[in-house]
Amino acid sequence: MNAELLAEVRAWIADDPDPKTAAQLTALLAADDEITLRKYFSGFLQFGTAGLRGPVGPGPSCMNRAVVGRTAAGIASYMKARAMTRVVIGRDARYGSEDFTEESAQIFAGAGFEVFVLPRPLPTPVLAFATAELKCDVGVMITASHNPPQDNGYKVYVGPTADGINYASSQIITPTDGFIAKEIAAITSLAKLPRGNSWTVLGEEIVTEYVRRTALLANNPGDLKVVYTAMHGVGTETLQRVFNHAGFATLILVDEQSQPDPDFPTVTFPNPEEPGAIDLALEKARDFGADLVIANDPDADRCAVAVNDPKTGWRMLGGDELGVIFGEWIARSRPQGAFGNSIVSSSALRKIAAHYKIDFQEVLTGFKWLAKIDNLAYGYEEAIGYAVDPKTVNDKDGISAAIYLAQIASDLKAQGQTLLDLLDEVWARHGFHATEQISIRVTDMAKISQLLTRLRQNPPSEIAGYKVHAIDDLAAPKDGLPPTDGLRIWLDGDIRIIIRPSGTEAKLKCYIEVITKDAKSAQILLDKLRNPLKEFLS
């Protein structure tokens, strides 16, 4: 075995606080399994604006107590340099979440901070709420959101101000991620760090207050039948409490997916957007004659909705369709503050905001950017993330989105209308906006960089027979946005295409928007674009 790798593995084992992962590495050494060890020792798991995210396993390239401990220690150093003193920790029900919570609490307590821990596995929005409500300097949520079962992650919130940025208790952005990453890299040994065993496990009061505040979004509950799936995550209990507090009928649960299960046994990927993920919920909706299907992802910060379309039967609303519904309703009912969406979302919200004379801002992909908009009243991103109550949770919140959507549907039902009728009103005013996403999974992220480099050096003059009339290199944007890796391409015929790497998964993402007179025309156009774009990106 390579001597340098051998020394690195032995040093890591000696410093590993978890005997289980230390034993795994020791066994690999005994088996002389250099191939597997190189996989686990291919660099420290990168810390960025999404925090940490990766497979649970031993070594510096995975999620484990040693990596989490060093990350917590790096955050502690960052906090001390800025006179920060209070931190709150939340977790979901994934493999490793309890251990990573304890590891973090020990490190933060050992650093002399006042440490709070949420009472049990809870949705990410509860942690985001607690960070602000408890006036904590830092919030940590241990979750991998909708990633595959083998993953876990570490999401960081800062509030209210740090590094000259008005965080207002929201997810970190650059340059804060770089400052924390530098502090993490400076941690050479966990064994030498002090650990504490004194922290406050919060009671139900913080959850009850979140439930009370969120339930205020529904002030006139109706008689809707709502089918709900938590996608094997932690959303069920909290959402049930919100609906009950608001006075809605009891949710119809998808029993097979209602309780936390880190194996996510009924879905290939625990993401409501994935094909087949809500099939059980749709089956339940047909059996019960439901009005709506609502789905959260496993940490309940995203919300998906299905409706019974009279033309096609039950179908999922697209993330942009739901974003437009929320935007139109909020603009009509409480038009104070600013609207915003991510650059890859539909351009329809900008037009709604202009129609109602509401300030609008477009930001980079990721809710961490939307949360920085001054006086945000409503923000969304097409990946089923919505902030319909930013004053309570300055982040995407699948629980508040669910109860607010139920209230909208209930109000429309009382008027003899549906969510689709509301959408039709918007399309009649602004043109039919259709969006679609193409995702290409890769095993080597370098291939995505190579593709984007090729497109920059040899930009296309046409795609699928449509002339390219403008290209915006998002790495050097001209509209005031911070630079990011990606390209925005405009084609003749009101077609916009954005190509970018995923920020959380090994994927290349391509976002298409077409604006036509009706749904049929849009579908014809999307059908013409789809396969040529897949070939173009291969």
TrEMBL record:
Entry keyword Cell membrane: no
Cofactors (names): Mg(2+)
SUPFAM superfamilies, alphabetized: Phosphoglucomutase, C-terminal domain, Phosphoglucomutase, first 3 domains
An annotated Gene Ontology molecular function: phosphopentomutase activity
All residue ranges annotated as the Alpha-D-phosphohexomutase alpha/beta/alpha domain in the record: 46-158, 218-307, 319-429
Isomerase in keyword set: yes
Pfam family name, one: PGM_PMM_I
InterPro entries associated with the record: A-D-PHexomutase_a/b/a-I (IPR005844), A-D-PHexomutase_a/b/a-I/II/III (IPR016055), A-D-PHexomutase_a/b/a-II (IPR005845), A-D-PHexomutase_a/b/a-III (IPR005846), A-D-PHexomutase_C (IPR005843), A-D-PHexomutase_C_sf (IPR036900), A-D-PHexomutase_CS (IPR016066), Alpha-D-phosphohexomutase_SF (IPR005841)
GO biological process, one term: purine ribonucleoside salvage
Protein's UniProt name: Unannotated protein
Source species: freshwater metagenome
